Amino acid sequence: MKFTIVLYAAPYSSQASLSALRFAQAALEQGHEIVRVFFFYDGVHNTSAFSVPAQDEYDLVRAWNALILEHEIDAVSCVSSALKRGVLDARESVRYERSGSNLLESAVLSGLGQLVDASLKSDRVLSFGA
Amino acid sequence: MTSNASGRRNLTFISRRSPYGSGYAKACLDMVLSAAVFDQNVTLVFMDEGVLQLLPNQQAGNIHAKDLSAALAALPLYDVDKVYAEQDSLTRRGLLPDQLAIEVMLCHADKIAEIIRQSDVVFTL
Predict the structure, then answer these.
(1) pLDDT tens digits, chain B, 125 residues: what are they?
(2) Selected catalytic residue, list A78, A87, A88, A107
(3) Which of A41, A81, A116 has the CB atom closest to B38's CB atom?
(4) Domain range for residue B63?
(5) Is B2 part of a structural domain of the chain?
(6) Beta sheet of B105-107, edge-to-edge order
(7) Which pTM does this prediction carry?
(8) pLDDT for A22-72, tens place per residue?
(9) Domain annotation covers residue B27
């Protein structure tokens, strides 16, 4: 089955990020396809490479990055949600004259159209954290 | 899949949050307009606190928020014409249909259940 995952919630604030991650892992293990992971609203914080959890805590952002890279998942962070929450790639950082960029290497910034597009290509769309 | 003959999919959005207490209402409307741009069969349902988005004369600027009225008014321009408000949610908040900022169809829970059954994808925010 083809899944799209939408994650609305920030890491650590709720269970949603881990639930989405573990769903994605389980789906892939069982041979399903993930068309796209779309990080929306507070969910864009999952794509901030500047997240530094305590040493004895699970590193959610790193886990997302590893999963996305390992399975070559299409991962999109909503650009309008991301910019206002301080998640920038190098290009946006230059454009808005900020001092650094932090978008996770495995994700790209793009618009809500990418969520609609993925929804049209999927058998199921699963929302986490809304 | 319940896509209709035109190949368009039935995308339903259920908006259940008040307009400015969080960003969810704005996020939901953004999703609706994006889906409409893709020429899909879009249905929008306001229920619970979401019906408060339909109040006229909002002055969101006073709290440095962006007025949702513009996005609501744009719905017909995007051919989003299946816009519902749940009757009980209105009644509980003392709202009358003719007081609302835009024209909506009234519905009850059973109609919403039917809309969900006929949808390919449901987003609830």
Answers:
(1) 455 556 899 999 999 999 999 999 999 999 999 999 999 999 999 999 999 999 999 999 999 999 998 899 999 999 999 999 999 999 999 999 999 999 999 999 999 999 999 999 999 99
(2) A78
(3) A116
(4) 16-124
(5) no
(6) B105-107, B82-86, B41-46, B10-15, B121-124
(7) 0.95
(8) 999 999 999 999 999 999 999 999 999 999 999 999 999 999 999 999 999
(9) yes
C-alpha torsion B57→B31→A23→A18, nearest 10: -50
Q: What is the CATH number of the domain that holds B110?
A: 3.40.1260.10
Instruction: Give domain status of residue B8, yes or no.
Output: no
User: The tokens of A3 are what?
Assistant: 């899944």
Domain count, chain B: 1
Beta bridge partners of A7: A39, A128
Structure tokens at B38: 């893709």
Interface of A with B in 77-106 (CB under 8 A): 80-81
Residue A32: DSSP 8-state: -
| B36 in a structural domain | yes
Q: Do A115 and B11 touch (CB under 8 A)?
A: no
